[in-house]
Amino acid sequence: MDLQGKRVVVTGAGGALGRAVVARAEASGAGVVQLDIAFPPGAGPGCHVVDLADAAATAACFASLGAVDVLMNVAGGFSMGPRTWEVSDTEWEQMFSINVRTLQNAVRAVVPGMIEAGRGSIVNVGALGALKGQGCMSAYTSAKSVVMRLTESLSAELKDQGINVNAVLPSLIDTPRNRADMPGSDYSRWVGVDDLAAVMCFLGSDAARAVHGVLLPVSGLV
After folding, report:
1. Active-site residue flag, 187
2. 1 close to 202: Cβ distance less than 8 angstroms
3. Nearest Cα to Cα of residue 20 among 152, 199, 205, 144
4. Which of 96, 182, 86, 79 is nearest to 142 (CA)?
5. What is the Cα 203 distance to its own chain's centre?
6. How many domains would you assign to the chain?
């Protein structure tokens, strides 16, 4: 895929998948802006610390960035929960804040500029496991279900204005945290972050200009 000359914003850029998306986008010729709630010491000038769950802070950050060609909404998170009727308000709010509110705030900040430019791409991260409910995961699967419905709705609203909106639906992603949480698993069957990043960058490229509202499973061998 070719992202030459495109300005790509990656949210959640400090995480394992975010770093892979940044690397793939830069290797494809993009100028990349990285957003996250924190970065390691010594992070470069393209790294911006922002709480994407804060609408005002997100709007101010994007206003300082200027034009955006591609928005990669990687920010999000997973947590197992108790049974559905035992999920606390705090646990419910946390899953929606990091998975849904961060996406909504980024979209609100970037879409008007894309509409004015008459072009753009938005790539979201849903979850293959959220295509149906899962035991002890109701808050997470509900939040990712909202991400998927928002992707479809945004696509319907924006495809006639030159803007592509799609999402990837990964299965288990091969990250250090997932390995720590599931020791002894066959990691070779999981989705590598580099492979997932490649699919996301394809969806953000002009090669995917005819792809609208797709929820693309990226399942590895799971």
Report:
1. no
2. yes
3. 199
4. 96
5. 12
6. 1
Q: What are the residues whose beta carbons fall under 8 Å from the beta carbon of 103, sequence distance 6 or more?
A: 73, 75, 76, 124, 147, 150
CATH code of the domain in which 166 resides:
3.40.50.720
Does any domain span residue 50?
yes
Query: pTM of the predicted model, to two decimals?
Result: 0.96
156: left (phi over 0), alpha (psi -120 to 50) or beta: alpha
Q: Could you report the per-residue pLDDT of 3-58, keeping only the tens digit for each?
A: 999 999 999 999 999 999 999 999 999 999 999 999 988 788 899 999 999 999 99
CB atoms within 10 A of CB 205: 23
For residue range 50-81, list pLDDT tens digits in order: 999 999 999 999 999 999 999 999 999 998 99
Does a structural domain hold residue 140?
yes
Instruction: Give a yes or no: residue 160 inside a domain.
Output: yes
Active site residue: 78, 140, 190, 202, which one? 140
pLDDT of 1 > 70? The answer is no
Is 2 among the domain residues?
no
